[in-house]
Amino acid sequence: MAIGQAYSDILTPPAREALQGGCDTLIDGVFDDLGNVKGSRDIADTWAAIYLPERYLYKYAPLFLRQFAVCVVTVAWKLAQPEHMPLSSLAEELAANAIIESAKVYAETAELDVEDLLEDFRDEYFEDLDFEYLFDDAYDGIDETDVGQMLGMSSLAFDDWFKPFSGESSRIAHPYVV
Description:
By secondary structure, the protein is mostly helical. The protein has one domain (5-177). It has 6 helices and no strands.
């Protein structure tokens, strides 16, 4: 089964190729990083650091990198299923975002004109884009405000990234990351 097959109504074959290439590139890169990271200082030079919120760089440790690698592989597996499988946690959302960003880089390198299609897929794939607040310091803590509560935002706290979304028993995170 090819990556993105469940989304063939949104993704053309070249866009699915870019998504597959993004998955492969990111998985290979994260696995390579696992062998090179000995301590927290090494995380800054990893693939994960490229695609994760920079303000938390000091919190990324070797165990975090292993857990994030599992999320990347889990999301790639979900993308390869014949039917849509919802993401289980904020870490999986961040992994999916990293895959899509990696797919854009792959598409540019392979000269595939699919960036708009990947953006359309991104808009369709995620239930919400709350995770984007993590990339902008101006929104630090928004999930804890009255506005965040009114919008029904899940926790964006670093310690909650790998926890399954609350109240959703059908969303099971990979046992390694819990």
